[in-house]
Amino acid sequence: SQVGGLLSYSTCSLNPLEDEAVVSSILQRAGGAVEVVHCRGRLPGLKTRPGLRQWKVLTDDMTELASYQHARDTMGLLGRRFRRSMFPPPGGAPDSIQGAIRLYPHDNNTGGFFVAILAKTGPYPLPRQRVPSPLPLKPPPRGGRDGGEAVRVLSGSE
């Protein structure tokens, strides 16, 4: 998309993992090429609330996870379902996220909604490319069923 373009990101959810965490991740990955357009006050007649700078990440049993690393360290394989982008950045999401709006059901007699308008302000950075490293070849174990061809072995660091 072109610089100056606008994108609306909205959900019918008030879960910050689906709302502010997604927008915060976009802002972080865009490296300044995307900004939140302040849209509070642009919906006359509706009471709006600002986007959240902080939120909690909870397990299925409602235990709070302090950080991404905490989830990985304490939950074993179950911790793999949590992504770094689910957690607020250190110090919280950028102040600009408060320009997004939350519509609470009890404020407007509606469902709950989150809306963020994102503006492209510069060229989006190219994604980091992973350079594939050649994998070492190792002969198959004796009695293998692979017809004798060499197999690729992954080391624990890859």
The percent range for helix content is 10-25%
Number of strands: 9
Regions with little confidence, pLDDT below 50 for 5+ residues: 146-158
Cα Rg? 22 Å
How far the N terminus sits from the C terminus, by CA atoms, comes to 35 Å
Strand content: 15-25%
> What's the assembly state of these chains?
single chain
Number of DSSP helical runs: 3
Largest sheet: 5 strands, antiparallel
Descriptive overview:
Strands 1, 2, 3, 6 and 7 form a five-stranded antiparallel sheet that branches. Strands 4-5 form a two-stranded antiparallel ribbon. 13% of the residues are buried. The chain contains three helices and nine strands. Helix content is 14%, strand content 20%. The longest helix has 11 residues, at 20-30. The chain is flat and about 75 Å long. With 158 residues, the chain is α+β, with helices and mostly antiparallel strands.
Task: Please give a handful of descriptors for the protein shown.
single chain, 158 residues, alpha+beta, two-stranded antiparallel sheet, 3 helices, 9 strands, 20% strand, flat
